[in-house]
Amino acid sequence: MAAPTYRAARCVVGRHGSHDTAPATRWEDGFRSGDGDCGLVMLGDPLAERLLLSGRRYPLPGSSTDQQGHRGVVIELDRAVLAPAADYRREADFRTGEVTVHWTDVSGSWRSRAFVSRADKVLVYDLVGPAIDLTVRLSTSRPDPGPQAETGGPGEVLLTIPGGATGPGAVTRLVAVDGPAHVDGAAAVVRGALRLVLLAALDRSGQGPALRRRLAALPIDYPRLLRRHVALQAPAYERMELGFGLPAGVMVGARAGRRCGGQPRETIRWAG
Length: 272
Description:
17-stranded mixed β-sheet, two-stranded antiparallel sheet, disordered C terminus
């Protein structure tokens, strides 16, 4: 099947957020969220979303302190049905720290969204669509130890990579709502669910058992977890504002030659 096509990338930067009309194929172009200790970069397209988690001790690739190539942990979500996507739009809300992606395909409308909670110190991810058929797995640049998967409660799978001195691991609680989830090797397979929720935390030094207990105690309620986070995030964001003294619609930057989602990046504009 032919790869989906998207409108030419146009990254628009507003006063309290930004949006783009094409997926990010490189981590540098992904939209970000974080709690000051754990960071998320959300990239990939609807057929293969990628959630890159990294902590302060484990910088992203390309940074000046990335001496040993630590790249964090990637949560990979690969769709089973390769239906071309349309009406694609991704948004980052600076005030809430939430990243949201909308698209449509032949089956209907889809939305994925995520943030890193300041209140609960976890990544919270939510996917809603007509019928979710996908495989979820963890990956890391370290060859050993590898990812593991085990069955949890009804519709639940626990995905883990132990952390240590050579790099971070992660513990991820996957919950499929109104649909089954099962283990296939080191991955979780979801078939026909209406909603998928992921709760994930970095494992820096063999904290797996404690992280499992902490994730198990959290509600599978995205709006409730978001409200707890925003109660801390919004006041911190609103304490300071950076202004350029430019009127709405004035272009504040352009990346000539840069590409986003395989398409030429046209402009980055201040939307006011």
